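Researcher: Here's the sequence for the chain we discussed earlier.
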Amino acid sequence: MQQIVINTSALQLPKEFAEKIGTERVMIRKVNEGLLLTPMPRHTRRLRGMLKGKGFTTERYFEQKREDKELEV
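Model: Thanks. This is the structure I predict for it:
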């Protein structure tokens, strides 16, 4: 499957489509049905809020790391 990533400024899309994309880059992939445009958000934006409401905190993370180190010894 072929794919490329380009800046949205290189595309000449109607305004309503460009607003829906909402990112600076898109990935274009060739699929059986035609072409698929996938927005490529910045990595940090994509990860933001991923663990929200999961009860996972930095304190819990460091606690798990300490437990892992104790098991290694």
